[in-house]
Amino acid sequence: MSTNRLLHCALPLMMLFIVTACQKDQKLINVRNASLSRTQQDRQFLIIAKEGVKLDAISESLTQLGVKKFKLKEAIQELGLIRVQTPDPSFPDKARKIADVESVVVDVVMNFRLPTKTFRSDLTYKGGSTQSANAKASAAAVSNPYSFLQWGLQSVKAPEAWQKGYKGNGAKVAVLDGGFLLNEPDIAPNIILSHSFVEGEEVQYHGAAGFSHGSHVAGTIAALDDAYGVVGVAPAAKLILVKVLGDGGNGSFGSIIDGIFYAVNHDANVINMSLGGELPRKTYTDDNGTPDDPSDDYVVEYNKDVKDLIKAINRATLWATLNGTTVVAAAGNDAYNYDQEKRFITYPAAALGVLSISSNGPLGWGINQDTTLYVPSIFTNYGKAFISYGAPGGNYAIPINTTVVNVGGIVNYEYVFDFVFNIGYWDEASDTYYYGWAAGTSMAAPHATAVIALLYGKYPKINPLLVDLILRQSSSDYGAHGKDAYFGNGEVNAGKAVGF
């Protein structure tokens, strides 16, 4: 790859660093303008019913309120939640007067796509092995020609688990994300089910960016162990792909709740959510995407709307946990210390029963493959009370290392090799699949999810409490001794985990 081309690819990345840093303290000025970029649609609300009541009567009463453009979208009896759509700002006050309604909250729509840093390679599916003598292959993964670029496999000790005979056989993993590359050869045979909760968008990814975030996540979990491409940490696990965000990363908490419910009802053992939105701990005004029309403005009150929205999210994640599904979420990429940050909090990572995963990775791996893999990522959110476990999500330093290096015949900037390598890149016009790198807690979460899938493969009847107990006992203690802000209870360790 030429130096000019490398520089062309790197400049947008460096600009993204600058823009992110400049906007970091402005996030609460206008939540919708700062977080959202979506096609205008009518606002949605979540009706939280009192515990144990039937939803039929409430649903009927809602349809008789006479609010404009009302649509009943979803009613989930098991969660006591009803999702509706209307631009009428008078709806909440009217709905709260219905018998057995506990609360009514606005279903916040955000851009949930974590600001993952990405870099496409020129490597396509079924490209021959480019491994050379100076590149360290991941043991037991050498049949996959690009696995030598996957330092994350060694970070979580995946080869050690494989050597003991555990690759996730029998486990089902639900990936809640944006669009997916359903025909991507590295994951297609492992896909058993897919569904979209995004109105007007199919599960198949068609984004202009050419990077399917969800497919990169899914490949990290369960790319096939065959003679091609890359390999997942749990290559024998099966995938349930659930689209809860649009291809541009926009979505609502209601769609995420629907996705959780769908995954559990289709027997997912573990749910991966490499997504996160910051819920403000303050009152703000939602203009419904129409800043020139104040008639549909809605004041989102922290002590009522935000707190009750969290209650709705917690109902879903706790219900999943109680039904035997382990829920995993990315911690977020803004380097916030949630032991101190009081302005907002990242959800669903902070929800009840959810394992919140921070990110770590090497600095300089492209130069020295023996360097430590466990440097906390510059971007990861952290906090002793917030992080459950650490996992490999990639890393970089400021200034970024633009030394051009050659790793096993692959030439690129050094910082790129410190990212996580997998599938996810697609040129739709030519139907060509590419491999490439990405960095973020979005990449850390699926590494942890896949380790959990290995446990479900070994113990089909295991439950989330036992999963957490085994992870606590088997994880590697990096950072400060004991539970700490960056690694939580430790770095997930597949080799030790399956040894219990």
From TrEMBL:
Cleavable signal peptide: 1-21
InterPro entries xrefs: Peptidase_S8/S53_dom, Peptidase_S8/S53_dom_sf, Peptidase_S8_His-AS, Peptidase_S8_Ser-AS, Peptidase_S8_subtilisin-like, Peptidase_S8_subtilisin-rel
Query: Which residues constitute the catalytic centre?
Result: D177, H213, S442
Entry GO MF terms: serine-type endopeptidase activity
What residue stretches are annotated with the Peptidase S8/S53 domain? 168-490
- GO biological-process terms attached to the record: proteolysis
> Which Pfam families does the entry mention?
Peptidase_S8 (PF00082)
Alphabetical UniProt keywords = Hydrolase, Protease, Serine protease, Signal
Q: Does this UniProt record's set of keywords contain Lipid metabolism? A: no
Keyword Signal: yes or no? yes
Q: SUPFAM superfamilies under this entry?
A: Subtilisin-like
Q: Which family does it belong to?
A: Belongs to the peptidase S8 family.
Protein name per the record: S8 family serine peptidase
Organism of provenance? Chitinophaga oryziterrae
